[in-house]
Every structure is written in structure tokens, then in C-alpha cells.
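Researcher: Good morning. I'm working through a list of sequences from a screen, and I'd like to move beyond sequence-only analysis. For each chain I'm collecting a predicted structure so we can compare shapes side by side. This is the next one on the list. No need for commentary yet; just the structure.
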Amino acid sequence: MSGYEELVAGVRARAALPGAEEARAAITATIGTLSHCLSDDERVRLAESLPPIVAGAAAEPAPTVVPDPASAAAEVGRRVGATPERGRYLTQAVLSALSASVPDAAALLRERLPEEFVELFTSPAGAPDLPGAAGAGRPAVLTDEQVATALRDLPGWNGNRRCLRRGVELPADRIPALCKRIKAIATDQGRHVGTGRQGDTVTFTLFTNAVGAVTADDVEMARRIDEEIDRVGSSG
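Model: Good morning. C-alpha cells for this chain:
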């Protein structure tokens, strides 16, 4: 299943939509609305991280002001011909599905949107128990203070309760092996690690999809990533 197909399937399941076209409309409405909270360069990055069939939504002209989650939900609803309440439901369905299937795009939005938008990255109430959906046994979100304490033992990492991030510069020929190893570790644990590369620098972004924020599992994953960075960086 392609990234686009996985994203559409996730949105359809979370929002109980009848078909792929309705899911695509919700995806483009949400991306088109929230992308205007980003700079031009960030919108290009967002488009590059999305499946091509919906990437154009990140480059729409005529920005719409969405200063808070309620305004964003209302705009998404307007774009699909629905109420603001339904707009919020669809926005949560899209962003939680995006976190599960296209984590790099979700990580960019989470990092750049105001903190109050974090609530939109959790699955809507009543959504089925899917990967990336919040359930009764969801892990606890760390506070900013708890994250700050954890970061003191994680040199090179920065962030807050929304996400953790570390960039590391390595010889170009060592980066693919590092990314492959970290992806394998994350897959074994049923998790996603956002990965971006620019030249000889690779950046890792962590948050827990089910709650749309940082949990103790992310702190532990950061330690695992550090171990792999040390291993790759000291080889050869």
C-alpha cells in the first residue's frame, strides 16, 4: 500500500467516510488550511514530504488566517461544505492519519503550528482503535518541565511537549545505514520516527502519534537513536 493509499484509508476509517474522494477532499482541505501557518520555504518542505497527489494543497495561493484550532476547523468545514463541528472532526481524522502514515509531514506541521493546535493531532472522539488513534490506554503526555528534565540527559536534542528533535552531521555514506537501522528499531516497536536530510545532516523528530505529543516512549527512543548515532559515528 502506497503512502497515499494508507493516508486515505486512515482518514476514511477515522471519519467514517464512504469513499476515497471524500477522504481526499478532507485531506486537501486540511493541508490547504494549515499550510498557511507556515513560511513559503516550509510550505515547499511540506509539499515535498506529502504524497504527490495531495502535495499541491500545500502550495495554494491566497492565504487564509487560522489563528486557533476553532478557526482552522471552521475553515476546513467551509472548504468541504460542512459545519465547523464536522470540520474539526475531519481535521483530527486527517492529522492523526497523517501522523501514522506520513510522519515527516505531520512532524513539520506540529513543530510550526502554535501549541494549542496539538489537540487536533489526536483521533476524533468515536474513531475506531487504529494505529495512531487515541484510546483508553493511551500513554501519558509529558509536561514541558518533564521534557526539559529529560533533555538534560539527551545532549544534542531539543524540543518541548509537542516533539523532540535532533540533527546530526555525518559522512554522507554513513547516513543511509543509520536511517535504515533506526527505521528497523522503530518498526519493531510499532512507532514512527520523522527523518529529514539536508546535505550531510540528518534530523530525527519524535512524538507519539496516539496522543499527538511527547511521551516517555519518545524519550526512550531518543536514547536508542543516540546509541545508533554513536555506533555509526565511531565506525570506520
